[in-house]
Structure formats: structure tokens, C-alpha cells
Amino acid sequence: MLVVGLTGNIASGKSTVSRMLASHGVRVIDSDVLAREAVAPGSPALAQIAARWGEVVLRAGGALDRAALRERVFSDATERTALDAIVHPEVARRRDGILRAARAAGERVVICDIPLLFEAGLTAEVDTIVLVDAPEPVRLARLVADRHLAPAIAAAMMAAQLPAGDKRSRADYIIDNAGSLADLEAHVSEVWREIARRAGAAAP
């Protein structure tokens, strides 16, 4: 089974690419979904988060207040490391379980959507890497316009990740997302055909 690591810096369009790849019938394991499951109300990870940063990072119903937590961690490398140490092991455990099931089912390709693939040192966990990229000014504008973030918060979130240039040199496939949606769809289909060929799968 070919395990593909899909990654990209924030607001690069990785989630859009992930959906496009899923439309080809390939299983996509979304680390963001696993992370949300890991910090669900009542989970050990959420209890650890509340113990470290206080009840202020919880909503009235007990769910995680992501905006409040983000304000406390993204501008401080020490705090980000502490958060990663709580969440990442649980996400990895869930992802490994899904991969084991996929192998047992005889699947030929599985895509692991991992935003912090490089930062978390997970490159050895995948067989090939697809990077989605877009220029920094484009990504900053997307964060401000689409996610309604203050420019300073958006810039801090971007700065918390490795520069795209470092990732481009280590990726096997690069999908540039600064053009139209049609351009992106064409590029994704091209990359998928190559991945399917490598895995011996039949690309639609």
C-alpha cells in the first residue's frame, strides 16, 4: 500500500486539494478531523489542555474554544510545543489504526492529510509527499478574508510553520495553487494519475 503524505502551509488550499483527491475514490485520512476527535469533550487530551491553559480555553458547554487557545499558543513556540505534545500522539494513534485497517482491506493507496508533516517529523511515516503551495501574500489574504483573522494573528500562524521553500525541496510532487480552480483541478488530476500509476491502481 502506498501511503501518501499530503501537506501544505496554512491557507495554501490543501483542504481543497484533499477533497479533489477524495473525489477520485481514494481514502483520505484527515489529521484535522482526527485532532478534533482527540480533543472532544470528555477526552483525556482536552482535560490536559484545560489543566495547562485554564477553563478560559473551554466554551460554556465544555468544548474546546479554538480561538481562545489559538491566541495563547501560536505566538509562543514553547506553548505550541506543549500543545503538540498533548494532541499529536493521540492523532497518530488514530491514524495508525485507520492505516492498519486499510492495509488489511487491501487498499492500494491511502492519503494522509497532515498539515504539519514536516514540522512534526513525520516524513518517514509516508512513502511519498505531495505539497500544496501558494505565495505568502496570497495565503495571508485568504486567512484575513476567508477566516476573518486579524492580520497579526494570521501572520503569526504562518510564521509558526516552516517556510514553503524548505518544504518544496523535500516534496515529491508540488501543486501550486495561485491560479483558477480549473487550473488546480487539472494539476490535482495529473498528480493523482502519477500516484495511481506508482501504486498500481487504476486512476479514473
Give short descriptive properties of this protein:
204 residues, Rossmann fold, 5 strands, alpha/beta
Report on this structure.
The protein is of the alpha/beta class. The protein has one domain (2-38, 93-199): Rossmann fold, CATH 3.40.50.300. Helix content is 52%, strand content 13%. The chain is built from nine helices and five strands, in the order E-H-E-H-H-H-H-E-E-H-H-H-E-H. The chain has helices at residues 14-22, 31-38, 44-53, 66-73, 77-104, 136-146, 151-159, 164-168, 181-199, and strands at 2-8, 27-30, 109-113, 128-133, 173-176. The protein has a five-stranded parallel β-sheet, with helices on both faces. Helix 2 crosses helix 5. The protein is globular.
Strand order within the widest beta sheet: 2-3-1-4-5
The CATH homologous superfamily: P-loop containing nucleotide triphosphate hydrolases
Report mean pLDDT, rounded to a whole number.
93
Instruction: Report the C-alpha radius of gyration, rounded.
Output: 17 Å
CATH architecture: 3-Layer(aba) Sandwich
According to CATH, what is the class?
Alpha Beta
Instruction: Report the total helices.
Output: 9
From the spread of the alpha carbons, the general shape counts as globular
Poorly predicted regions: none
Distance between the termini: 18 Å
Strand segment tally:
5
Offer a quick outline of the entry.
52% of the residues lie in helices and 13% in strands.
Write the layout of secondary structure elements.
Elements: E1 2-8, H1 14-22, E2 27-30, H2 31-38, H3 44-53, H4 66-73, H5 77-104, E3 109-113, E4 128-133, H6 136-146, H7 151-159, H8 164-168, E5 173-176, H9 181-199
Parallel strand pairs: 1-3, 1-4, 2-3, 4-5
